[in-house]
């Protein structure tokens, strides 16, 4: 089951898609000034938090 290309594609799609979605949506809201970053938080910290 874990050796097929479909399983690998789904796994990577979820991993990359989730990171891109959360980081992208957060940056969009920050740029639109809907929600600010918490004090001490920046893009680099956000990306590390979602990726790890």
UniProtKB/TrEMBL annotation:
Record keyword Transmembrane present: yes
The regions listed as transmembrane in this protein's record are 6-30
Keywords, in A-Z order: Membrane, Transmembrane, Transmembrane helix
Against Pfam families, the record matches this protein to:
Na_H_antiport_1
Q: Which InterPro entries match?
A: Na/H_antiporter_dom_sf, NhaA
Gene3D superfamilies per the UniProt record, alphabetical? Na+/H+ antiporter like domain
Q: Does the keyword Membrane apply?
A: yes
Provide the protein name.
Answer: Na+/H+ antiporter NhaA
Organism (species): Paenimyroides ceti
């Amino acid at each position: 089951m874990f050796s097929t290309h479909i399983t690998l594609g789904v796994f990577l799609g979820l991993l990359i898609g989730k990171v891109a979605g959360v980081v992208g949506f957060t940056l969009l809201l920050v740029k639109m000034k809907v929600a600010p970053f918490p004090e001490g938080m920046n893009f680099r910290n956000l990306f590390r938090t979602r990726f790890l």
